[in-house]
């Protein structure tokens, strides 16, 4: 009996661990296919979450224009409503605008109704701002479950995760951000994978989150990799 109980407990623990991995690990495909990257080690995608933000988003647009690089901005709907002109500038510059929910909740713990409202509301805010449909969506914190991904797809979106984390939501210097990214890129290249790089031009708490270190880190990354990498947006990997 004790052996059976221990075996049952082990099975429960393994199932719980598997669910945690599937719902939280960025590159996991267990709950359904999401875009991470393709098998081209020198293809990189610069992606920025939690904007729009002033002045950092505008500074990034100017910097990306200098290098003729397109990026992806996963924006928060409540900030889009407050500063739609920034989102229009992103789209006008040829970058991809993606859905990052209306208020940046942890969708893993939201009701199905709340999940749908968050994603649909952000879609509407973006479309009102730029007059074009949204195609990509990233779950805040990367947290998801099967029905969350089903709702994403039902609303006409493709879910996107990442495989390089800059950890720039922490107050760290640009040099540390670059080191984090470079380490992730090197790991991916060893595994013959492209790199989908998670950066932040804003913060979920509101406007004026200081992301100047990310702007400087972006400049350094472009200087480091522009001549030897092909920068793409995640829709190239669909």
Can you describe this structure?
With 238 residues, this protein is an alpha/beta fold. The protein has one domain (34-237): Alpha-Beta Barrel (TIM Barrel). 46% of the residues lie in helices and 13% in strands. It contains eight helices and eight strands; from the N terminus they run αβαβααβαβαββαβαβ. It has helices at 2-24, 56-67, 77-82, 84-92, 112-130, 146-154, 174-190, 212-225, and strands at residues 43-51, 72-75, 96-99, 136-137, 158-159, 164-165, 195-200, 230-231. The strands form two sheets. Strands 1, 2, 3, 6, 7 and 8 form a six-stranded parallel β-sheet that branches. A two-stranded parallel ribbon has the order 4-5. Strand 6 (164-165), helix 7 and strand 7 form a beta-alpha-beta unit. Helix 7 packs across helix 8.
The major sheet is characterized as: 6 strands, parallel
- N-to-C series of helices and strands: HEHEHHEHEHEEHEHE
| Shape annotation | globular
| Rg over C-alpha atoms, rounded to the nearest angstrom | 18 Å
Give me the number of helical elements.
8
List the helices and strands and how they pair.
Layout (H helix, E strand, L loop, with lengths): L1 H23 L18 E9 L4 H12 L4 E4 L1 H6 L1 H9 L3 E4 L12 H19 L5 E2 L8 H9 L3 E2 L4 E2 L8 H17 L4 E6 L11 H14 L4 E2 L7
Parallel strand pairs: 1-2, 1-7, 1-8, 2-3, 4-5, 6-7
Helix pairs in contact: 2-8, 4-5, 5-6, 7-8
